[in-house]
Amino acid sequence: MRTSALLTALLASAAAAQDSRFEVNVPVEVTLVGLTFGVRPELLFRPGEPGSVSRLRLAFGVLGGPDHLFLPLSLGYRAQFRQAHVVQPAVGLGLELQHRLVNDLAPVRQFGAYLEGGVGFAVSPRVSVSVMLGLDLMLFGGPGFGFGPRLAAGWRF
Questions:
Q1: pLDDT of the residue at 7
Q2: Cα 4 to Cα 14: distance, rounded to the nearest angstrom
Q3: Which of 46, 125, 30, 57 is CA-nearest to residue 86?
C-alpha cells in the first residue's frame, strides 16, 4: 500500500514538472578567455505547450577575475530535448551585452552573440543538474571571443 502511494505521488510530481513553465538555474561558470569565475543565474520560460523543447532564456552573471569584474547580460533561446528522460541534451543561441570593469580603466561594453550546448540530468521531476559550454563572439564595442563551461543546478516551477 505504501509503495503504491509513493508511486502515485512520484507520477503526479512528474506530471506537474512537465506542466512547469519556468525553470531557474544557478550555474557556476569559469570563462577560459579572460579568466573569470562566478555565477550566471538564468530564468527559462517555456512559451509553448507542455512537452515543447523551446525555452526563452534570460541570464545575468557576476564573474570576477584577477584584474576585472565581468557582468554579462544574455537574452536567448534554448532547446531542451528528451525532457521525460534522465539525460536531456540542450542547445541554444542568443544576444549578449557584456560589461567589463577593468582596474584603472574606463568600463568596456561589448555586444554580440553566444552559442551554447550541453546536457542536463534529471535528479527528480523538478530538480536537475547540467553541464553547458558557452561560446561568445562580441561584434560591437571591440571584437572579442569567449569560451567557458558552466555547471548548474536547476528547479522547475
A1: 47
A2: 15
A3: 125
Tell me the three cell numbers of residue 1. Answer: 500500500
For cell 536537475, the residue is 128
Q: pLDDT tens-digit profile of 18-42?
A: 678 999 999 999 998 878 999 999 9
All three cell numbers of 157, joined, read: 516551477
Q: What range defines the domain where residue 35 resides?
A: 2-156
pLDDT surpasses 60 at 15: no
What CATH number did the domain enclosing 87 receive?
2.40.160.20
**C-beta of residue 40 within 8 angstroms of C-beta of residue 61:** yes
Three-state SS at 10: helix
The answer to whether the CB of 134 falls within 8 A of the CB of 148 is yes
Domains held by the chain: number: 1
- Quick one: how far is CA 12 from the chain centroid? 26
Question: Does residue 21 contact residue 152 with C-beta atoms inside 8 Å?
Answer: no
Q: Rounded to an integer, what distance in angstroms lies between the CA atom of residue 119 and that of residue 117?
A: 7
Grid cell, residue 75, equals: 537574452
What pTM was computed for the model? Answer: 0.85
The per-residue pLDDT for range 69-123, each reduced to its tens digit, is: 999 999 999 999 998 899 999 999 999 999 999 888 899 999 999 999 999 999 9
